[in-house]
Amino acid sequence: MGVSEVNWVALGIFVLLFGFITWLGFAAAHWRKGDLDLLDEWGLGGRRFGTIVTWFLVGGDLYTAYTFIAVPALAFGAGAVAFFAVPYTIIIYPLLFLVFRRLWYVCHRHGYITAGDFVRGRFGNRWLALAVTVTGIVATMPYIALQLVGIQVVVGALGISGAGLIGDLPLILAFVVLAAFTYSSGLRAPASIAIVKDILIYVTAVAAIVVIPIELGGFANIFAAVPAKKLLLAVPGAQTTGAYSAYATLAFGSALALFLYPHSLTAVLSANSGHAIRRNAAILPAYSFVLGLLAMLGFFVIAAGVDKLPEYAAGFKQFGNNFAVPALILHSFPAWFVGIAFAAIGIGALVPAAIMSIAAANLYTRNIHREFINKNPTAREEAQNAKWVSLLVKLGALVFILFVPTQYAIQLQLLGGIWIIQTLPAVMLGAYTRWFNSWALLLGWAVGIGTGTAMAVATKLTPTYPLALGGYVFPGYTAVYTVLLNLGVTALLTPVFNRMSATASPLDATRAADYTEAQRSA
Amino acid sequence: MAESRGRRGGWSWWYLLFVAQYGVILWPPFYNRAEPYFLGVPFFYWFQMLWVIISAVFTAVVYFATDD
After folding, report:
1. Is B37 in Cβ contact with A94 (below 8 Å)?
2. pTM for the structure as a whole
3. How far does A239 lie from chain B, in Å, by closest CA?
4. Which ipTM score applies to this complex?
5. Could you read off the pLDDT of A151-170 as tens digits, one per residue?
6. Which residues contact A44 (CB under 8 A, 6 or more apart)?
7. Residue ranges of the domains in chain B?
8. Domains along chain A?
9. Interface of B with A in 20-59 (CB under 8 A)
10. What whole-number distance in Å separates Cα of residue A75 and Cα of residue A83?
11. Can you tell me the distance from the alpha carbon of A182 to that of B54, in angstroms, rounded to the nearest whole number?
12. Closest approach of chain A CAs to the CA of B51, in angstroms?
């Protein structure tokens, strides 16, 4: 029961490119060689990446295969609202520029490799650090699983499908490869593969944005084919901020959440200087531009009408709107280029999946194992531990995607965004102040997680919640509302807890000067 | 070095550029319309894409202005 016939030319090129990045992933162990028995070397590439490699790594990390499949799919299905991805990427870079530069300096100075390490040092509370750590791991797992969905869709579009093991074999193979090179090379593997991935993605995006509009008779024709309801955001009615507040809060909340994900911090911390971080804030928007172009592919799908063609019906039936971009590529390009484009998406899944599994492994090793199980591991034990955990994390994601409906992974990823943003007061504001009491932070976190989950369930696991206040309705991203609540609780309880505790507040291991560049005069 | 210390650690007026880009891009009523079209692309889309470029320029300006 295939989606279509096997596309041998495209499959050949796809396999060839996958073979190449597999070799690259293993060879990366020798790149800027370091002792891979140290967690710093395996899990952060020895903090040696300059501006350019950081650009590829962060880009490969943040703009995942799932992004390239799901954003155009949302544009195809829901229209203008999908474009929130563009303001979202505009918002993230000032955060990178201001907040994460500070975090880079303090983590570099104290040898921190995770957000948990930082919170532990800053607030001296192992339970708060544990909350940040567990949130990070739990939010990352469905994100890894979603990368597999990206691979599944392109493999299906190549014509390989079937029941049982045969159908799942490509996915299992891809993950064995991923697991093996991550284990042996650490962060150097996704860093080197990200360069190949990004070149392929740029080639694909530029070709799509030039060739397809020519085939379809220009942008005017394409947008004329988009139904009026999808072309713009719905103008809100009386007594509500409608689609406007939903759009703005989705962009803002997603941006705040993004850099709190462990894999973002891993990529940021692997840079070799605070300057590399700040330069990247200025040059990373090149990816935002490509993302905007890719979002428009959803409209190309509508204009080309590929969803109505019989040869793609089975694909749409199996993968839903996620099949929109693969179908458009199959429809618009010769087989050899389909191979390149699909490889771009497939490899685009491996890069973030590798970084995410490394980030989760770093978290477990540093903030759970070392904190609660074995307090004095040797450097070698610690690195070995992380390598095993990275395997386990990926295996979990694979099992999840093979045996649980895709819809659950998507819903869990949605919840993950609401959960991870609850670490904002401790991590992002913690980069500026330790005014907050650590127990108040922990309680605020718990209230945010609880309320956020309840709100998400009440809205049947959709991202926006219609907040009703004084006869007005403000639909907005649940993560934004709940992190505000979290902040309110934390701020209210901080003076209360400070008064209650007889002892002085725990020590802050960091000093104000640790957050900025070393003073020249000092 | 008191002046440069203040610049590195604290507030810089150049950060107002970030505030400006947030203000524009987080206010959809400002750009939620189709006219005027540019190369066949509705305003809603090309305006936001344009702000990707503007925000990159702003960030570069802040980078050089606050750098040592």
Report:
1. no
2. 0.91
3. 16
4. 0.88
5. 888 888 888 776 666 778 88
6. A113, A187, A266, A269, A270, A362
7. 2-66
8. 8-503 (1.20.1730.10)
9. 21-22, 25-29, 32-34, 37, 39-42, 44-45, 48-49, 51-53, 55-56, 59
10. 7
11. 37
12. 8
